[in-house]
Amino acid sequence: MPAEIIDGRKVAEEIRGELRQRVEKLKGKGVTPGLIAILIGEDPASLSYLRGIAKGCEAVGIFTDTVKLPENVTQEELERKIEELNKDPKCHGIILQLPLPKHLDTLRAESAVSPDKDVDGTNPVNTGKLLLGEETFFPSTPYGVQELLIRSGHSPDGKHVVICGRSNIVGKPLMGILVQKQKTANATVTVCHTGTKDMPSITKQADILVAAMGKAKAITADMVKEGAIVMDVGVNQIEDPENPGKFKLVGDVDFEAVKEKAGAITPVPGGTGPVTSALLVANTVKAAEKLLGS
Amino acid sequence: MPGNILDGRKLSTEIREELKGRVAKLKEKGITPGLAGILVGEDPGSASYIGLKEKASGELGINSQMVRLPQDIKEDDLLKEIERLNKDAGVHGIFIQLPMPAHLDENKALTTVLSEKDVDGFHPVNVGKAWMGQEAFLPATPIGIWEMLVRYGYSKLKGKEVVIVNVDNLVGKPLASILAQEKVGANVTLCQPSTPNLATYTRRADVVVVAVDKPKFLTADMVKEGVIAVDFGSNWIDDPTTKTGKRTVGDIDFEPVKEKAEAITPVPGGLGPMTVTMLLFNTVTAAERQAGG
């Protein structure tokens, strides 16, 4: 029996519906949440990503803007700009668009973003709080995986989650989120080295399998246990076999084959991606609420 | 063939000898490493533990300053005391002996310690940096386990399976923080003590680490031949053959697991002796970093 397709767009719309109400309440108190991105240079992929984020902000009625800095900006100038935004009352959330040019120190820049406005959850203080199980901002991609699991009725509680890929933006924080002793987590979590020879022997154990290696079709049907929940975080551009010369987006999972075996699966596009963007906005709304409450 | 015994006492002595050398080098530059500890109240267990840390510091030539504060101290006064130690250039490492009395906010105290002096590795900045693979201080137990694996030649873990039965902030999570990094490259599984069918995980493990404080929790049928078994449990059980009628054991059913293991830590004499040593290790490292390498 083919798998249930987990509809990320629907869940994202549900989240945005909730956010609209929270934004209305904030506006009633005279506060419009604001999300401001810092972009260095003119990378087209980053520009297109930020356009998507801006659309998501407009959809729930929050303020958004992008601060563009030249490619040759110095560390001091960048940190001064971050400091300005830290103090700017219109700005509740700051996105530092990565990767930064090589001459800049990413960790120092991330650490300069106020932990209270760090809606990407990349300031080490917030990473630490995440791991310690304290109140913080979760990076939106791993947060999206957790929310999508819960809202589609596949709670990780008591399940074995195998995460393929150990990046600082997905694999590691997701492990930190899902091992917490909380109802929305409480999983047994394995994080896999992508170079492992017998990876199938590990992935086949998974009740919930998360693909985050950044490699098209890396998870094949023989690597998946019958009935497993498969969450695909990958976004890869490959040549479209049906339209030579054209490209299409695929995930890290061999979707057509795996969907025949999995219990549920997220498509790419339309799976974890839309939820991720909705949650970045949710973090901004939360930041505005916290500021108002304090 | 029974497994190698991972001898924490021997290793601890070896590491302390090395630390003496590092302390001597710092002293040549006019720097004496300093460790400060804060104890609130008079819990006898905590008082004796802080005494051990004080004595060991002295043996290595590290200055120690143990601040004993009254049980009913106000939070503001505690924080002021931490601030004072933060500013004291002769203090390179600060730890707060836990648990603290209930009226004090542990979290607030721990985050007041300057992250550069946080030799217990409890400050969120250190936890976060360690998780991201950046230079940071990690708690004594996980770095003690790592040093043990390195020094006994069991640290080549690329693609190996490590199963940790403990998800706490002191052991499981920071140990995963070391072992899941790209440069170590292990496949790390964090198991809850309540994980269903736990044996299916532990039987796959090349390295198994347990810290659940239940005697004989990990039995021989739960491990594979050739496993490296690490025990951070501590249980005080009845034993009529001893003078006191009691003795300390770990979480591993030691004798039978030893027969199957490639290597195993005993309890006592395994990780226990390593913890104070690794705190001093962090203190000397802190002094070196603050001196600029």
A few lines on this structure:
The complex is a heterodimer of chains A (294) and B (293). Chain A has 294 residues and is an alpha/beta fold.
Q: How would you portray this structure in words?
A:
The complex is a heterodimer of chains A (294) and B (293). Chain A has 294 residues and is α/β, with parallel strands linked by helices. Chain A has two domains: 31-115, Rossmann fold (3-Layer(aba) Sandwich), CATH 3.40.50; 140-272, 3-Layer(aba) Sandwich (Rossmann fold), CATH 3.40.50. Chain A contains ten helices and eleven strands. Chain A has helices spanning 8-28, 44-60, 75-87, 106-112, 124-132, 140-151, 171-178, 199-203, 255-258, 272-293, and strands spanning 4-5, 34-40, 63-69, 93-96, 160-164, 188-192, 208-211, 229-232, 236-239, 247-250, 264-265. In chain A, strands 1-11-8-7-5-6 form a six-stranded parallel beta sheet. A three-stranded parallel beta sheet of chain A has the order 3-2-4, sandwiched between helices. In chain A, strands 9-10 form a two-stranded antiparallel sheet. The model of chain A has no long low-confidence stretch (mean pLDDT 96). Chain B contains ten helices and eleven strands. Chain B has helices at 8-28, 44-60, 75-87, 106-112, 124-131, 140-151, 172-179, 198-202, 254-260, 272-290, and strands at 4-5, 34-40, 63-69, 93-96, 161-165, 187-191, 207-210, 228-231, 235-238, 246-249, 263-264. In chain B, the strands form three sheets. In chain B, strands 1-11-8-7-5-6 form a six-stranded parallel beta sheet, with helices on both faces. Chain B has a three-stranded parallel beta sheet with strand order 3-2-4, sandwiched between helices. In chain B, helix 1 (8-28) packs parallel to helix 10 (272-290) and helix 6 packs across helix 10.
> Of all protein chain pairs, which has the greatest interface, and how many residues does each chain bring to it?
A-B, 37 and 37 residues
Classify the helix fraction of chain B into a percent range.
25-40%
What is the correct CATH architecture of the largest domain in chain A?
A: 3-Layer(aba) Sandwich
- As for the number of domains of chain B, it is 2
Biggest β-sheet: strands ordered side by side in the sheet of chain B: 1-11-8-7-5-6
The name of the CATH topology of the largest domain in chain A is: Rossmann fold
Q: Can you say what the CATH homologous superfamily of the largest domain in chain B is?
A: NAD(P)-binding Rossmann-like Domain
Rg of chain A (CA only): 19 Å
Text of the CATH class of the largest domain in chain B: Alpha Beta
Order of helix and strand elements from N to C terminus of chain B: EHEHEHEHHHEHEHEEEEHEH
**What is the CATH architecture annotation of the largest domain in chain B?**
3-Layer(aba) Sandwich
Fourth CATH level, the homologous superfamily of the largest domain in chain A: NAD(P)-binding Rossmann-like Domain
Q: What low-confidence regions of chain A span 5 or more consecutive residues with pLDDT below 50?
A: none
